[in-house]
Specification:
With 293 residues, the protein is an alpha+beta fold. It has 11 helices and 8 strands.
């Protein structure tokens, strides 16, 4: 029964189907948890209505929908601008097909930079001092460094406390950290679009979300009103963190060591790790709990 089907298939056709499936898979990974999912569903619903209008010969509705589709094709790059920018950036740094490596790479057990950031965040939280600390990853943040005051100073708890002191002229902006160096302070970050949600976020949180939507940076946010510590990554905010140890573990899991070498992972290994994830012994309390924003 299947022999006539395979007689029409060639090796090129199979490769074509597999390559298309992989591209669709990574596209869905790219937009997962973002506003693009709802937009994509709306586009699919519109296309379904257009198909029904053509099937039942509703010429007026079909004409209107055709015009809307023509306008939509022009506006899609504008609507999906953050996702397209993120995809091109990942492709440029060779990270588009390494989106699953975080689950199979070796985890760091300690990092002096993370320890300093966690301690400073806890002290700022206890004093109800607002803070915005950006941890640079693979995406370059030179444009944001130029928007603030360049420091190129060695990272320390005392330096962070001095920068975010309410009497400091740099306390309102963000601090950009690369490895163990404070690159700049008082930096301006792009704000995420305000959304009507159950959870209300302030300007610092919107700035953290706006930057993490465009880059792979990890941002620590300390609320000035409540002293709550949250972490922004990939356009999402974690739940408030209160313990220094847990904050350090979260940052270790979300960031990448600057001098750490990873074992190479091919595409088949990445797909296998996502389909059959390894058993983790970490407790539920240690796992990141993220809120979609």
């Amino acid at each position: 029964m299947l022999s006539p089907l395979f007689s029409y298939l060639s090796v090129t056709d199979i490769i074509d189907v597999l390559a298309t499936s992989v591209l669709i898979y990574y596209f869905l990974l790219l937009i997962r948890g973002t506003r693009a999912v709802q937009i994509l569903i709306g586009v699919l619903v519109l296309l379904a209505i257009m198909g029904l209008a053509n099937a039942f010969h509703l010429y007026l509705m079909a004409t209107i929908l055709d015009l809307l589709a023509a306008v939509g094709l022009v506006s899609l790059p504008i609507i999906f601008q953050p996702e397209l920018r993120r995809a091109l950036e990942q492709l440029g740094r060779g990270g588009f097909f390494r989106m699953g490596m975080d689950s199979i790479e070796s985890r760091r057990t300690q990092d002096p930079t993370i320890a300093i950031l966690a301690e400073a965040a806890i002290l700022l939280s206890r004093s109800r001092v607002g803070a915005l600390i950006v941890i640079e990853q693979q995406s370059g943040l030179k444009d944001f460094v130029e928007s603030g005051t360049a420091l190129d100073a060695r990272l320390s708890v005392e330096l962070l406390l001095a920068i975010f002191n309410t009497r400091s002229p740099l306390h309102d902006g963000a601090v950009l950290v690369h490895a163990s160096t404070v690159k700049a302070a008082g930096c301006f970050l792009p704000l995420a679009e305000p959304l009507i949600e159950e959870r209300r976020v302030g300007t610092r949180h919107r700035a953290a979300l706006g930057l993490t939507e465009q880059t792979d940076a990890v941002v620590i946010v300390v609320s000035e009103e409540t002293g709550a510590i949250t972490i922004a990554r990939n356009g999402r905010l974690t739940r408030p963190l209160e313990e220094e140890q847990r904050l350090s573990r979260m940052l270790l899991a979300m960031t990448r060591g600057s001098r750490e070498r990873r074992a190479p992972a091919d595409l088949v290994t990445q797909l296998r790790s996502r389909i059959f994830p390894p058993n983790r012994r970490a407790s539920r309390a240690d796992r990141p709990k993220e809120l979609h924003t």
